[in-house]
Design goal:
The complex is a heterodimer. Chain A is mainly α. Chain A has five helices and no strands. Classes of the chains: A mainly alpha, B mainly alpha.
Chain lengths: 126, 139
Amino acid sequence: MNMRTPLKNVRSLGSAKEGADHFWKQRLSAVANVFLGIWLVWLIASLAGSDHAAFKQALGNPLIAIGLLLLVLSGTFHMRLGMQTIIEDYISSEGRKIVLLMLNTFFAIAVGLATTFAILKLSFGS
Amino acid sequence: MAHAEGGSAARPRPTSPHIQIYSPMINMMMSIIHRITGAALYFGSLLLAIWLIAAAMGPDAFDQVNVLFGSLLGKIVLVGYTWALLHHMLGGIRHFIWDTGRGMEIKTADMLCWVSIILSIALTTVIWLVATGVIGGAA
């Protein structure tokens, strides 16, 4: 039987050694998202209703393709951090939490990679 | 703690009041909506992914997705996505201001919250009026 108080157990472990790392990454990607997000709204507004040929031509512009790639990187990074916080806040069961945190990472990477592939394919034009 | 021995059943620990105890306040509502819009944008990222992947698959898939997005339900979802994006963005900017330690007085904090909800709705309205050609004349 463990006679230690929870506080004693925590003290022996020390800090998680992560400090403000999560907070900082969240804010860093948030700053990028503000600019890239405004640009995305403009891009979608100017591309909405265009046919496939025009869409492909726009994506062929390296600046547009690079902008979208940056947005996908920053966006999926940011949303993974945000969902991680939500899961850690509301899921108390340790097993379920770990599974959901894994799925969170898988989802962010899958969305990021699939979108990146689509952008590159459209931009390189095949 | 000194009286813990003797096999008496542990008293339930005091708990701090949780959200259901408070009447809604604007900064609290905006905080909750910030999280909800964040979660919505998380799954909404699929919309951008589907659009781009369909375009990469070819004209047929691209046309099908455009028809889907252009339907009434599609438009409602896209308007909601636009608002969620703008609201989350403005909420983020509000948090940047608070991160510097400024605007923490209750009056200012509440004012910033009202600005973000009003501005997000106004901007969403303007963007969609422009996009649908009601203002400006873009097709």
